[in-house]
Amino acid sequence: MNRRDFSKAGLAVVGLAAGVESTMAATGQAYYELRTYELRLDIDISGINRFMEEHFVPEMKRRTGGPVGVFNVAQGRLSPSLIVLLQWESLEKFPANTELAKGKGSFSQAWKEFESRPMPYVLYHSTLLKAFAAHPRIEVPPPGNQGHL
Known about the structure:
Layout: H1 3-15, H2 24-27, E1 31-39, H3 46-64, E2 68-73, E3 81-88, H4 97-101, H5 106-116, E4 121-130
Antiparallel strand pairs: 1-3, 1-4, 2-3
Helix pairs in contact: 3-5
């Protein structure tokens, strides 16, 4: 099993958990997917940044209906890496990567082109989280306040 098949299979297993809890309507809480891509040092990573900006973020905003956060880690223990935060309304809407790549649309084509090149990351971790009842959704900071505490 190569790394691409392994990562797709791993996300497919997470998708099977959809029967455990069904919708945000039942609990009022969203689900978050936190991905950490550990980037390679030996190749140009501009391709993943371009793919995220031009294809992945717009597609995930369309699918999730919510905010999509993509953050570059330039210094520290996980550098270089890319952190992606997605908000899902329910586990039923949480797709496996194999579902994202299916179809004939522009995103599917961009995904296939992206995967045909050398992968710009060594591996990625995907963690599925359930929001706290007191903080059920991601709150996006107001414009002009990004990146400041």
